[in-house]
Amino acid sequence: MLRCFNGRAGSLYQPTSLVSSRASLATHRKSEYNHRGLRISAASASQGRARSSLVDCYKPPEKGLIASLPRSWIPYAELLRLDKPTGTYYLFFPCLYSTLFAASMTSAGPIQVVGTAGLFLTGALIMRGAGCAINDLWDRNLDPHVARTKFRPIARGAISPCKAIAFTGAQLLAGLGVLLQFPAQCLWYGIPSLLLVTTYPLAKRVTYYPQAVLGLTFSWGAIMGFPALGVDLLHNTLALEAAAALYFSCVAWTVLYDMIYAHMDIKDDVAAGIKSIALRHENNTKAVLTALAGVQISLLAAAGIAAGSGPVFFIGSCGSAALSLGAMIWKVQLKNVQNCWWWFKNGCLFTGGGITVGLLLDYVARITGFYEEAAESRC
């Protein structure tokens, strides 16, 4: 900075033009800060008005399970998606698959298998609710701009973020309580899934493939059934191969069905800046779905080979999955929101149910000695 001496010894002065420039800059910055503050206040006010408008437009459910609950409970039931259990089924099926695979490998008794499956169903219900709450907390400023999500309880202001965090914490503790009912080794297998639960909502902001993160999260149960029935994956190579193949088969399935689900919001996602695989592959979605189905069925068959499954599994589980997935990919109308929802909801039962029946019949064939008798009769 230019410094000059005036006529008095040792005193400094700054040129008048520089002082004037500084004053102008300070005034400009003050004005900018004021405008920025006004913009922030305006944005906050706008969000407040938007939420107030959503509250005014919101209509509580008039039928179904949630409608029968006390009015103060309804927002929390909506946060859990109690009226939309499909997500719970999608989370539960991988747990059920791995349980039935492990049961066939260990010849576990039916009571033990049913009890284990019941615990997994309870855990799926709780953890799916926790996952939805975490997702809605992340998306609370995005959801009001998407038609399908704008009336979610946090988005419309029916539940504050602080209350939602406390409620989510209670759910996670309940989930931990369920996890502790399994053998001790399950705790170490289950903890990593909590990290995945929190990353999916963030992935939607940084990549067009958040469904891959969702797949890694929702498919974790494909691992859990093995230690739940006492199978040590670290010392049983075949079980580890079966679990790995099953896990990535379920990941492919998750990406497949959630790609269809993402097509319901594709227009709103563009406006809100949300990324998805449906946006990235909007023009070749069915080709991607077909490839995912092929990967899913191939890895499912690989899991059966590693587990030593019989022909009942390959015909029942792999065959039914091929038929149901093929029919869904062929018939789903990706431009029709209602049709996408129908296939997302019912495709879960068609494909998941078919795989389960095949695994269950294979388990029954093993514990009843059907395969041995068939082999002896051929001899």
TrEMBL record:
Gene3D superfamilies: UbiA prenyltransferase
Gene Ontology cellular component annotations, sorted alphabetically: mitochondrial inner membrane
Entry similarity comment: Belongs to the UbiA prenyltransferase family.
Pathway membership: Cofactor biosynthesis; ubiquinone biosynthesis; Secondary metabolite biosynthesis; terpenoid biosynthesis
Ranges annotated as spanning the membrane: 89-111, 186-203, 212-231, 237-257, 287-306, 312-330, 342-361
Name assigned to this protein: 4-hydroxybenzoate polyprenyltransferase, mitochondrial
Cofactor: Mg(2+)
Catalytic activity field: an all-trans-polyprenyl diphosphate + 4-hydroxybenzoate = a 4-hydroxy-3-(all-trans-polyprenyl)benzoate + diphosphate
Mode of membrane association: Multi-pass membrane protein
Keywords assigned: Isoprene biosynthesis, Membrane, Mitochondrion, Mitochondrion inner membrane, Transferase, Transmembrane, Transmembrane helix, Ubiquinone biosynthesis
Molecular function terms, GO-annotated: 4-hydroxybenzoate polyprenyltransferase activity
NCBIfam families in the record: ubiA_proteo (TIGR01474)
Protein's cellular compartments: Mitochondrion inner membrane
Catalytic activity, EC: 2.5.1.39
Record organism: Aspergillus homomorphus (strain CBS 101889)
Reported function: Catalyzes the prenylation of para-hydroxybenzoate (PHB) with an all-trans polyprenyl group. Mediates the second step in the final reaction sequence of coenzyme Q (CoQ) biosynthesis, which is the condensation of the polyisoprenoid side chain with PHB, generating the first membrane-bound Q intermediate.
GO biological process assignments: terpenoid biosynthetic process; ubiquinone biosynthetic process
